[in-house]
Amino acid sequence: MMNQAHDSIRAVAWRDDSLHLLDQRLLPQQEQYLVLETSDAVAEAIRAMVVRGAPAIGIAAAYGAVLAARQRFTGDPENWRQAFEEDLDRLQQARPTAVNLSWAVRRMREKAAALEDDPVAALLAEAIGIHDEDILANHAMGTLGAAFIDHGSGVLTHCNTGSLATGGYGTALGVIRSAWSTGKISEVFADETRPWLQGARLTAWELVQDRIPVTLLVDGAAAHLMREGKVQWVIVGADRIAANGDVANKIGTYSAAVAARHHGVKFMVVAPASTVDMAIASGESIPIEARAPQEVLELGGQVVAAAGARAWNPAFDVTPAALIDVIVTERGAVQNPDTEKMRSLMG
Ligand code: MRU
């Protein structure tokens, strides 16, 4: 039985034969859904961060593959495949760091390869399966992760890992939802998450909608918060977890992990198995997306930096496994992760 409490938002939905995406660039000022009919429109929505968060972009790409099949299948069981494969390549290349994107596209590719006739209905069933499995995984992780948290704990989270970033409920925010529902958490703190402000714009919006009180802080205040003893756990998501347990996540996660270890605050990473990339030995090989300097030089479309200054804007960083107390997946939790433990988790 899934816990529906404190979980009202769905950012990705298949309705009336099209993909509906809540435009996360406009939140929290406007709640506007875009209706997408082509796989290239989905690829562009992923690139432009209409939809973002590792599991959510995988799910959106799976529905994008359905749209590609619908565009390309003209009745001839063979001639649609090449154009369909090229559509899938463009979907897969929309963003580089979150492995859920290539995981979902690969799953849709394999499904399509096994189909002989009109592929659309079977691919739609596969995409809905990916979406539903993600929500179930989030609920399982919510329960597993909340078990680590003692009553009366304060928690800090970074970026947005909730219903907006997943099929629903959330990864790190799913653990926070679950622990909040059972009264374990005394206070939720959220980093604003410069430069795109996923914490201030999205996590705060999502928690306010679902009646979980939240206190925002600038990213640079996190170490001071820990020094004041206000949080016992930092709980974050992941965009890709390497075979040795190193974790790529939103820029600023690594500094939160360093500060947490220094202050004796525990550090939890919550992500579905689809985020684990056993083909990558360590975090050093994870591709890190470089985004436009304007995201740093401007704020809400207004220039805030001195004219002539340049900006460096890596969207993600890598937290070494040694700084992580526990990785929670739907398959189980791995404490003090290393290659051997990750291998036995993933089979
Ligand atoms: O650039 P974004 O907003 O797509 O980055 C998202 C994150 O880094 C999340 O923390 C991660 O994808 C986990 S979401 C469940």
Walk me through what this model shows:
The protein folds into two domains: 12-136, Four Helix Bundle (Hemerythrin (Met), subunit A) (Up-down Bundle); 144-346, Rossmann fold (3-Layer(aba) Sandwich). The protein contains eleven helices and 16 strands. It has helices at residues 39-47, 54-72, 81-92, 99-113, 120-146, 172-181, 198-209, 222-227, 253-263, 294-297, 339-346, and strands at 12-15, 18-22, 33-36, 153-157, 185-191, 214-217, 233-236, 240-242, 247-250, 266-270, 276-277, 298-299, 302-303, 316-319, 326-329, 332-335. The chain has a seven-stranded mixed beta sheet with strand order 6-5-4-7-10-15-16, sandwiched between helices. Strands 11-8-9-14 form a four-stranded mixed beta sheet, with helices on one face. Strand 5, helix 7 and strand 6 form a beta-alpha-beta unit. Bound molecules: 5-S-methyl-1-O-phosphono-5-thio-D-ribulose. 5-S-methyl-1-O-phosphono-5-thio-D-ribulose is lined by residues 52-55, 98, 159, 161, 165-166, 171, 198, 237-239, 249-250, 315.
